[in-house]
Amino acid sequence: MHAVARRGNVQRRLGIISLVLLVAGCRSPQVPARELVSANNATRNNAASLLYELMGEEADVSKLLIIKRERDELHRIIKNISSVASAAHKTLALLAKEDPTLDLKRTNLPSGEKAVREAMSKQKGGELLKASGADFEFKLLLTQVESLAYSDHLARVAALNESNPAQSRVFTEIATQMNQLHGEALNLLRAGR
Fold first, then answer.
1. Cβ(55)–Cβ(89) under 8 Å?
2. How many angstroms separate the CA atoms of 121 and 44, rounded?
3. Is 90 exceeded by the pLDDT of residue 158?
């Protein structure tokens, strides 16, 4: 009788151990908070760096209007994009100055991606300089629509990965501004004047 009772106890213990192992195996491993913050900071820094770089470029887009005389509506929106981008660029620089964990030099792009971006930028710049009239307006607005959509998403990713609520709001505000400008540029592009 003791052998039967012992075998029953062993089977129950094995069942309990199996259940515990099964439940433990189904749970996701917990990532230490420090590693999670580090991963979030890396993503935030990458997105913020790309955004910072892009805002610096967009701040200069109105310089094209010095050599190209176009209609007032295009002139207005390009000046507005340039102004908003310049302010965002300065805001990001101030955030980085106040927060040593925000590194705006962490684009971390592979060399192939950098080379492709440089080639595309050079090609688009050349096309814009050669274009005039409706062709210039179309090409300029197309580049702005693409750039503003990208800026919007970069700022949103930075906001989502920012642990400081005040800084997250700054990124969200930049995203909102980029989204609004994107809509304006897209509407002007659609008008096709």
1. yes
2. 24
3. yes
Measured between alpha carbons, how far is 171 from 182 in angstroms, rounded to an integer? 16
Q: Which of 25-34, 36-45, 143-152, 162-171 is least confident?
A: 25-34
Encoded tokens for 12: 């129950």
Q: How far is CA 76 from CA 2, 57, 173, in A?
A: 93, 18, 21
User: What is the amino acid identity at position 133?
Assistant: G
| Whole-number Å distance between alpha carbons of 118 and 150 | 16
Q: DSSP secondary-structure letter at 107?
A: -
- Residue range 37-56: average pLDDT? 89
Cα-flanking dihedrals φ and ψ of residue 164, to 5°? -85, 115
Nearest to 144 by CA among 108, 180, 170, 92: 180
Helix and strand numbers, DSSP H then E, in the chain: 7, 0
The answer to whether 86 touches 52, Cβ cutoff 8 Å, is no
pTM for the structure as a whole: 0.78
Spatial contact of 95 and 102, defined as CB atoms under 8 Å apart: yes
